[in-house]
């Protein structure tokens, strides 16, 4: 809102962050665990007096130096660059609140660089004991970098009391600090083992390849086993909503976790079979396959961790669309566009409605949704929704889907965004329609648009309501949470529930029966003063049950002298049943 939006309609900024971030953490965790791996591999060579193992360690150190200091550093800068462009508000907030932590991390990173260069370039050129100390120094500095970054990014998911106090140490030692630190340390050791197997696979000496493959495989196996309790601990400290997301509430998160689980199982099998039990099987394709599994596993974890923050980018502080939670009430009252700095339209008018709606999409939706592209394509997601359905849904989408930020703005702005999506994107009508009094079917349709159409197409529900009567359909609407825990019971009045039930039944081709309501009594009360039974039978002879029900809601259109039917929706259903029964329609 206070920064311009870097608009990339074809891909979305979030996708770029994900691609760069996963690539970077795949290397940065190796940069931590790999430092300890080098020291212990060197100690192994010294203990066994094996020059071949020492030569392997030096080759691995060269690979380590190039990978971590070149690719790791470039991708690290890339992360800062991309997050500053995509979400400058959150980036600025974290820098200003944790400037001491970032400064300390940069100091340790400087030590890492110096120690890594000394370790490689003085390999075999200084006393072994001194050289090992340099390696340990590198590992300590790298692990301290991990510790510091872990504390800062952890607060984005589990802020705890920091969300209110903004105190540095409360944020740094947030609820997920320790489980996340131990889990990431396990991942760092796992990465060291995987990269070690990769270097071993390129070794020309069979004995060294077998020895160092098994050595690396043990690292990977121990890390995977140790990571299990750490992961469970990590999940246990998450906020309730985040726990629900990572345990299956979100289909996309569940899918990512499935990919991660498959990758872990494959990596475990490869580690056991080709690294520990039969290390002679480790070759370049096998090692690359293990690396791919590790990459997918780590990508699944990072994507899930990011998704678990929804609807926030910094939990309880900044929503994923860069709107501060504390500003929401003011924006709803005054209007979002009026407060936004980088928009062309600061209020919605009849002339700029579509343009204002497009700007609202960019400012509030684009951070997670593209239009016609692959990142949560909003065009596809809203394809079956009408303008009234969008108006109703956007106004309460945070209630329906808590992992989405609430819309920030006035009702007029809600309608502008809805008009842009329905009219500009889908070419649908964007007229506000209000059902006429007495037209129960139209009222039911409007209730469907407002309460159901965000998730369900009308035709998708035909089977569920076919053959139901109003009472049965109404009972279903009252117990939707028992049908699916992702739905809530219909919250309207009894009459509105009956109107919605009547609409769903009529659209499903069913016959509405209203057990407990005497249709003959309804006829006597509302019709018999002017109409005899035989007159009604003749007048409706060409209508089926659904047409009778519909036309009872539009009597003044059929005969201008007739007043609208003034009974309840249930009574109209009962009257339709009664008239249809007089004709032998049942």
TrEMBL record:
> Does the keyword Ion transport belong to this entry?
no
Classification via InterPro entries: Cyt_c-like_dom (IPR009056), Cyt_c-like_dom_sf (IPR036909)
A single MF term (Gene Ontology)? electron transfer activity
Q: Where is the Cytochrome c domain?
A: 439-583
Q: Which Pfam families match?
A: Cytochrome_CBB3
Highest rank taxon of the organism:
Bacteria
Q: Does the keyword Ribosomal protein apply?
A: no
- Membrane spanning residue stretches: 16-40, 61-86, 106-123, 135-162, 182-203, 215-236, 256-277, 286-303
Alphabetically sorted, this entry's keywords are: Heme, Iron, Membrane, Metal-binding, Transmembrane, Transmembrane helix
Name of the protein in its database record: Cytochrome C oxidase, cbb3-type, subunit III
């Amino acid at each position: 809102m206070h920064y311009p939006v870097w608009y990339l309609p074809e891909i979305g900024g979030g996708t770029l962050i994900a691609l760069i971030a996963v690539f970077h953490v795949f290397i940065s965790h190796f940069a931590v665990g790999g430092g300890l791996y080098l020291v212990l591999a060197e100690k192994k060579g010294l203990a066994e007096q094996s020059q071949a193992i020492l030569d392997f360690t030096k080759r691995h150190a060269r690979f380590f130096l190039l990978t971590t200091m070149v690719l790791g550093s470039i991708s690290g800068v890339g992360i800062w660059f991309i997050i500053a462009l995509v979400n400058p508000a959150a980036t600025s907030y974290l820098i200003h609140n944790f400037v001491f932590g970032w400064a300390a991390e940069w100091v340790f990173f400087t030590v890492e660089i110096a120690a890594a260069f000394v370790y490689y370039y003085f390999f075999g050129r200084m006393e072994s004991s001194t050289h090992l100390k340099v390696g340990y120094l590198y590992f300590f500095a790298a692990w301290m970098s991990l510790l510091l970054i872990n504390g800062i990014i952890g607060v984005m998911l589990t802020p705890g009391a920091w969300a209110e106090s903004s105190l540095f140490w409360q944020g740094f030692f947030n609820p997920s600090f320790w489980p996340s630190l131990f889990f990431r340390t396990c991942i760092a050791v796992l990465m060291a083992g995987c990269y070690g197997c990769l270097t071993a696979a390129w070794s020309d000496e069979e004995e060294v390849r077998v020895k160092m493959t098994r050595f690396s495989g043990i690292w990977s196996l121990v890390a995977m086993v140790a990571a299990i309790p750490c992961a469970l601990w990590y999940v246990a400290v998450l906020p309730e909503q985040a726990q629900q997301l990572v345990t299956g509430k979100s289909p996309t998160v569940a899918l990512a976790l499935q990919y991660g689980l498959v990758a872990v199982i494959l990596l475990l099998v490869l580690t056991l079979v080709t690294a520990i039990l039969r290390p002679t099987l480790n070759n370049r394709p096998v090692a690359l396959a293990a690396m791919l599994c590790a990459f997918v596993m780590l990508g699944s974890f990072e994507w899930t961790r990011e998704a678990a923050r929804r609807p926030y980018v910094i939990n309880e502080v900044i929503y994923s669309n860069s709107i501060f939670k504390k500003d929401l009430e003011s924006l709803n009252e005054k209007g979002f566009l009026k407060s936004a700095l980088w928009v062309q339209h600061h209020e919605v008018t009849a002339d700029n409605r579509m343009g204002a709606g497009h700007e609202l999409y960019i400012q509030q939706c684009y951070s997670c949704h593209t239009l016609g592209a692959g990142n949560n394509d909003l065009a596809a997601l809203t394809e079956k929704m009408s303008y009234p359905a969008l108006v109703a849904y956007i106004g309460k989408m945070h209630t329906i889907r808590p992992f989405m930020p609430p819309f920030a703005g006035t009702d007029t702005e809600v309608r502008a965004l809805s008009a842009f999506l329905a009219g500009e994107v889908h070419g649908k009508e964007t007229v506000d329609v209000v059902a006429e009094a007495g037209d129960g079917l139209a009222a039911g349709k409007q209730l469907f648009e407002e309460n159901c159409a965000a998730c369900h197409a009308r035709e998708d529900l035909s089977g569920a309501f076919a053959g139901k009567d109003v009472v049965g359909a109404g009972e279903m609407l009252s117990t939707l949470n028992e049908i699916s825990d992702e739905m809530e019971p219909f919250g309207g009045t009894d009459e509105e529930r009956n109107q919605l039930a009547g609409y769903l039944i009529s659209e499903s081709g069913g016959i509405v029966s209203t057990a407990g309501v005497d249709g003959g009594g309804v006829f006597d009360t509302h019709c018999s003063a002017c109409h005899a039974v035989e007159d009604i039978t003749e007048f409706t002879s060409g209508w089926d049950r659904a047409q009778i029900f519909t036309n009872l809601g539009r009597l003044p259109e059929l005969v201008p002298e007739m007043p609208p039917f003034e009974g309840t929706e249930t009574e109209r259903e009962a009257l339709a049943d009664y008239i249809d029964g007089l004709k032998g329609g049942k």
